[in-house]
Amino acid sequence: MAEFFIFIYATLAMFVIQAMAANQRHARPNPQMMTMVGWGLFSLSSTLAVLLGAVALALALGLHMPLPATFNAPLF
Question: Which pTM was predicted?
């Protein structure tokens, strides 16, 4: 299921980036909906980066937290 969400996120992000680059190249304004989707993707990326950074920091400092069963590989 995670692979599906990653695929949708990547597809949407590439569409928004390419459409905004084409609009900038042709000196056209971006539609409001595309700008909002871009800000939403930026917010999602930033939030996930901060949360995963906090988990990595906690693990690096030695905090033993239960991880989901999908992480069955040894961490250290």
Answer: 0.71
